[in-house]
Amino acid sequence: MNSFLFLAAVSALALSAADWRDQGVLYLDHSPKAVMHPVPIRAVKIGEGFWYERRKVNVERSMPTMYDLLEANGVMDNFRRVSGRKEGPLHGPVYTDSDIYKWIEAAAFSLQSAPNADLQGRIDRAIDEIVAAQDKNGYINTHWSLDRAKDRFTQMERGHELYCLGHMLQAAIAYYRATGNTRLLDAGQKFVNYLVADFGPDKRPLLTGHPELELALAELYRTNGDKHALELAGYLLSGVETQRLNLKVSQTNYMFSGVPFTSRTRLIGHAVRAMYAASGATDYYLETGDAAYFKTLNTLWDDLVRHKLYITGGVGSRSSGEAFGEAWELPNSQAYTESCAAIGNMMWNFRMLTATGEAKYTDMMERALYNGINSGMSLTGTLYCYRNPLAWSGLDPNDKIRNPWYDTTCCPPNLERTLSSLPGYFYATGKDGLWVHFYHDSELDWHLEDGTPLHVTQQTKYPWQGSVQMTVSPAAEKNFALRVRIPGWSTSTKVLVNGAAVTGAKTGEYLAIQRMWKPGDRVTLEFDTRPTLIAANPLVTEDAGKVAVQRGPLIYCLEQPDQQAPVADVLLAKVSAPFAEEQKPDLLGGIVMLTHTGAAYRKPLESEPLYEPVGLSRGHTTKPVELRFIPYYAWSNREPGAMAVWVPAPL
Ligand code: FUB
Ligand code: ZN
């Protein structure tokens, strides 16, 4: 049997054996190093509250309007051009195909939560156009077709051929898990089969350039058992082709994927590439248990949290090369912090969580999700941030941070797919029970790993309030461990089962409550959401002498419309003074606003000299003002103006 037929046989066998409906955002049921198995998206219904409105807007506004914009900007015409269905020019940059793939993935995730004939119709029409543009040999990429077909795989550092395939596979898998339909998956598998047949150490060299295919190949392997896909991921991560392709790879190279993954010692270069490479490498570790990968992943993670992480969960300081900076190089207004990079951070940490069960990874996911990712989409769902800076001068009213469309429009559909896959991040099963990662009004209908049906509800106003009421109802009395996450920001937490206190809760860890659970058992969690002032390591020079405000998982900021003085002129007066907390149901979709005593320079700083002798301290000429903080994610949803996360304070 030739390898193509063999693969087809493997694929058909695995596809009929596994129930597509039961596969989560990551399908880890057979992954040897996974300590938990995420539940499928459809098992979790998100109720009223924080994410409900965001997700509703995502389905009703964001995805339909983004699809229309993809059409209007010629993304689908690129496929029609290659299939011969339409004549015209090629549109967009080299990675343009990936945007419709990410959109399909987003829409397919939402179908896993609820049917939607409009989105389903759009997906089906898009798939029809895509499949029609595929070459007989399986190759598909509209940029490298027709007159450019002769140049395929000649510019692998920048060509994005495999990056686009990675997104195609992810879209195909999400759609398969929504519908059981394998049309796009078959097309993606055909391209993979072509790569496996023609490329490799003893064949033609291959390189991803922009990592992405690696994690998609691992998920393909999990979906249909195609071992060649996993081997291909390992080959790409190994960086073995650097020499054969005569690439000048250095530690500061813009291209991240040419470097053998296990030789990395710090996060450098393009931030999204780094996050996707780390995600793919974690996937590879989850399947193979290769210890060298795990060691490198831990080294990189430490580099991230000790040196390169924004308080919002955003990553990537520099616009030049969309890259990480040096250690502690974390500028605020110049922060690049691309939405896709924060999403990549969440993706990587989800994988690290499933490999270890350590809550520090869930904390990181939550930090990115509520702040640096959530800021990426406007409350209307139709304007997006590509960059997510932590300060904004507001001096140039034409400088718009939120836009409906970008020439490189990678972030909008990435934000959409994150929101539509959200229920899939809430729970996972393990061999001895259930893991609870996130909190929100919600309902879980699933089962333990021995098959016992399990219904769990959460009632909460999280993140606005720290109290979570859960009911835990196995179909019949059952002894198992319920692992509830105690967030790293909750410095004192109470846990009760049926009103009786449970001891042992530790901040930033999972608490395993092992007992005989009966239908209707009640778990109460009381997290401490009191606002906290955070200081940065003084080596972060931009934040020296400043504080940031955190309440629960939310990072706050000052925005001009709420202030009594220019944002640039204010200080937080007394760090020991308490915050006032006020629910504002009609402001910015409903928020808790924080107020604190502050001071403002009597003369606006913009009228002061650039330099002056020490001793003429401007601090003596202040007047009292009230500082009003809003959650960072909600900034730039009103008239354009200044914003600051880090505020000067007498420390
Ligand atoms: O190169 C494809 C995508 O475009 C990257 O992930 C983003 O950073 C943007 O450069
Ligand atoms: Zn992006």
Fraction in helix: 25-40%
Q: Span between N and C termini?
A: 72 Å
**What is the number of E strands?**
24
Class computed from helices, strands and strand pairing:
alpha+beta
Bound chemical compounds: beta-L-arabinofuranose, zinc ion
The CATH architecture term of the largest domain is Alpha/alpha barrel
Number of spatially distinct domains = 3
In CATH, the topology of the largest domain is named Glycosyltransferase
Oligomeric assembly: single chain
Shape: globular
Q: What value does the Rg take, in angstroms? A: 25 Å
Nearest-integer average pLDDT: 94
The major sheet is characterized as: 10 strands, antiparallel
Strand content: 15-25%
Tally the helices: what do you get? Answer: 15
The CATH C-level class name of the largest domain: Mainly Alpha
Walk me through what this model shows:
This protein is α+β, with helices and mostly antiparallel strands. The protein folds into three domains: 7-390 and 400-425, Glycosyltransferase; 427-526; 533-648, no CATH class. Helix content is 34%, strand content 18%. It is built from 15 helices and 24 strands. It has helices at 3-17, 50-72, 75-83, 97-113, 117-132, 161-179, 183-198, 213-224, 227-238, 241-244, 271-288, 291-308, 339-356, 359-373, 411-421, and strands at residues 37-38, 44-46, 384-385, 391-392, 402-403, 427-430, 433-436, 442-447, 453-460, 467-474, 478-486, 494-497, 500-501, 509-517, 521-526, 532-534, 546-551, 554-559, 570-572, 580-584, 591-601, 622-631, 643-644, 647-648. Strand 6 and strand 7 (433-436) form a beta hairpin. The longest helix is centred in the N-terminal third of the chain and has 23 residues, at 50-72. The termini are far apart.
